[in-house]
Amino acid sequence: MHTPFSELSSLARRMERSSVAGQVTSALGLSLVVSGLERAVGIGAHCTVQGSGGPVLGEVVGVDAAGTRLLPFGNWDGVRSGDPVKVTQAATEIRPDAAWLGRVVDALGRPLDGRGHLPEGDAPRPVRAGPPPAFDRRRVGPRLATRLKVMDAFTPLCRGQRMGVFAGSGVGKSTLMAMLARHAQPEVIVVGLVGERGREVQDFIRDDLGEEGLARSVVVVSTGDQPPLMRRQAAWTATAVAEHFRDQGKQVLLLLDSVTRFAMAQREIGLAGGEPPTSKGYPPTTFAELPRLMERTGPGSGAAGDITALYTVLMDGDDMDDPVADAVRGILDGHIILDRRIAERGRFPAVDILRSLSRMLPECHTAEEYALYRAARQAAARHADMEELIRIGAYRKGSDAEVDAAIRLSGPLEALLGQSKRETLAPEETFANLRACLDAAGIAVPAG
Fold first, then answer.
1. Basic and acidic residues composition bias: which ranges (predicted)?
2. Is the bond preceding residue 258 a cis peptide, omega within 30 degrees?
3. Over the Cα atoms of the chain, what is R_g?
């Protein structure tokens, strides 16, 4: 059987482009030291180590008097002192194509779904690129209908906006992302599963995306058992794929789960490269890489589309002051906080509407919608202030009219905000139901 020309050209592009070679001098943990490459490669270059177990791709993470320090995209099993090392361009660029839609790839752009050859586009795209110039970018566009009631009403998402989903473990971050992937209606969805549990990958693709969702999606997967370079690369590759479709004029939704595992991978890389640990063991490069990754998304420029991005953040011990959570919150255009206590009450998505914020408000709501939003939020805040007294029976009905109204609203509002994975509701219906709840509670809504 003849090999298709497109596949031959793809293989040719992956061949070694340089004859510069060095050799392994020592190995300790994840780090491999190579001599003979000091003047040929810089930080971020890729090399292939020819070990007894086969070639292993590595990345340069440090250069010092001892030599060039490499970390692997696989593992160093079988690598010995004296093994040859060659410079390669593999993994520094990918060639996305429209044929990638409906496919599942790894961090290096190789197919994982067992569906054979993955066609490549003609134009190479670096996986690590800079953002568009700030003054060339459009402003954030109109509101997107997520069809998630709590988001459309209280934390609206706009075209080209970047939002963070913050929560502890097991509170519903991945489920919320899955609901967005299923219910939102962008032209292209790019899903980056960074450090994901291997058993959950098929569940996400088959149950959450489904055939219809997968048909307009590219899924980039790096599981938690893979080396830190692969986990970091998965975030870069997913972003590069989103940039490709943005530059084709498409409206792209990028879902990256999770940016915390990206930061953890960068921590392992930085520490192995000899960086000093700082806040909670994270080296300085971690906090430099976070904005470099997330500033690549957002509104496009010229004829390009936009990348609307959501990043999940795993908060250590549900602590919003966790260094990664704190850094990400300052970079993004809003944050959705998932609260464990709300999840324990059985309301999902477990969004805390008082602690969550979209920086696109109030412009993305109409005047009437914003009046409803403010009235409901103020009543919820009033109830939260008095919740402890209400729970222990220290508050007497009739003592405060505003508190009485907030108590009447709390049950219907909780019911309104709850939503199953398959349920959808248009934003207009959500606001109509919110008005009905406020009217029934006797809460006056100011004119918009």
1. 112-125
2. yes
3. 25
Name the E strands within 187-251. Answer: 188-196, 217-223
Query: Rounded to 10 degrees, what is the CA torsion of 252, 258, 261, 266?
Result: 30
- State how far the alpha carbon of 350 is from the alpha carbons of 29, 273, 345, 433, in Å: 41, 39, 9, 19
Is 263 in a helix, a strand, or coil?
helix
171's tokens = 């509170």
346-369 tens-digit pLDDT: 999 999 999 999 999 999 999 999
Closest CA to 262 of 200, 324, 332: 324
Give yes or no for a contact between 42 and 62, defined as CB atoms under 8 angstroms apart.
no
Span 301-319, pLDDT tens digits = 989 999 999 999 988 777 7
pLDDT in tens, 187-212: 999 999 999 888 888 888 888 777 88
pLDDT tens sequence across 161-180: 999 999 988 888 888 988 88
Position 294 pLDDT exceeds 60: yes
Which residues touch 344 (CB under 8 Å, ≥6 apart)? none
**Number of neighbours of residue 423 by Cβ within 10 angstroms:** 12
CA-to-CA distance for 325 and 274, rounded, in angstroms?
24
Residue-wise burial string across 150-187, b where 16 or more C-beta atoms lie within 10 A, e elsewhere: bbbbbbbbbbbbbbbbbbbeebbbbbbbbbbbbbbebe
Global pTM reads 0.90
Neighbours of 48 (CB within 10 A): 18
3 token code pair? 């090999």
Instruction: Determine the angle formed by the axes of helices 259-272 and 228-247, rounding to 10 degrees.
Output: 130
Residue written as token pair 């990206």 = 262
pLDDT class for 152, splitting at 50, 70, 90?
very high
Pure H helices in 46-145? none
Taking each helix axis as running N to C, give the angle between helix 323-331 and helix 284-294, from 0 to 180 degrees, rounded to the nearest 10. Answer: 30
Q: How many CB atoms lie within 10 A of CB 225?
A: 10
